[in-house]
């Protein structure tokens, strides 16, 4: 009888371990489908800065710091934005961030500063560095023949390669994936730039964001920024996801 009870107990314990193992595995897989708390906090910071809605930006900045973003990460987010929404919006964002940091300091809150950007050691020309970064972003080599706006105004193609994709993207405070999340957030918020949003959402997928994560991104735009902006972003995302299936 004791032997029989012992065997029954071992079977039950094994079943419990298997159950917890399955639940644990499901949690790991499920967690990969969603954006992290820090990623989610970046979206409204970028969007409100782009729209110039500074009161809402203040709340978003507080939430971002509370979520674990460092001071330098948030500064880098706002600096990155000027390439997409202009210096005036970016500078107003930085001024608002200064106000938030002063408020928190007066309350005895010490926020983590975080790492500074490392010096760039790559000896290639800025144009070649920018081209290499862009090729990594889109996941394919670029041709040498320009077309469209790049052929019409070649200087802007140089500015994009040398400044945006070299000077800015070479700064390692943010990863490429984090920078692209910032980019799609501001493009979704300002509206009217669907071709650029399409390109950058495709880059997000190339960098490893899942359809679930990008749909979650659109939901955050809907809840924090507005239904109109979210509807436009969702339409672009749906096109990309449909193309991926074909």
TrEMBL record:
Sample GO molecular function, one term: peroxiredoxin activity
Superkingdom to which the source organism belongs: Bacteria
SUPFAM superfamilies: AhpD-like (SSF69118)
A Pfam family of this chain: CMD
Domain (Carboxymuconolactone decarboxylase-like) ranges: 161-238
PANTHER family cross-referenced by the UniProt entry: 4-CARBOXYMUCONOLACTONE DECARBOXYLASE FAMILY PROTEIN, CARBOXYMUCONOLACTONE DECARBOXYLASE-LIKE DOMAIN-CONTAINING PROTEIN
Protein name: Carboxymuconolactone decarboxylase
Lineage: Bacteria, Pseudomonadati, Bacteroidota, Bacteroidia, Marinilabiliales
């Amino acid at each position: 009888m004791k032997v029989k009870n012992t065997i029954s107990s071992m079977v039950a314990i094994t079943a419990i371990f298997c159950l917890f193992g399955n639940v644990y595995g499901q949690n790991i897989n499920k967690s990969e489908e969603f954006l992290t708390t820090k990623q989610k906090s970046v979206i409204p910071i970028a969007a409100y800065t782009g729209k110039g809605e500074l009161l809402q930006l203040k709340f978003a900045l507080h939430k971002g710091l509370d979520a674990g973003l460092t001071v330098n990460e948030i500064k880098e987010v706002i600096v990155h934005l000027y390439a997409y929404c202009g210096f005036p919006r970016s500078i107003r964002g930085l001024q608002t961030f200064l106000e938030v940091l002063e408020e928190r300091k007066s309350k005895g809150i010490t926020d983590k500063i975080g790492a500074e950007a490392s010096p760039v050691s790559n000896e290639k020309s800025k144009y070649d560095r920018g081209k290499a970064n862009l090729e990594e972003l889109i996941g394919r080599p670029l041709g040498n023949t320009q077309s469209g706006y790049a052929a019409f105004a070649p200087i802007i193609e140089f500015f994009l390669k040398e400044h945006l994709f070299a000077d800015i993207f070479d700064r390692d405070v943010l990863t490429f994936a984090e920078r692209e999340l910032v980019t799609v957030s501001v493009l979704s918020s300002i509206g009217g730039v669907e071709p650029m949003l399409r390109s950058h959402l495709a880059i997000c997928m190339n960098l490893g964001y899942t359809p679930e994560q990008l749909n979650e991104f659109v939901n955050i735009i809907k809840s924090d920024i507005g239904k109109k902006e979210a509807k436009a972003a969702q339409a672009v995302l749906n096109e990309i996801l449909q193309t991926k299936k074909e």
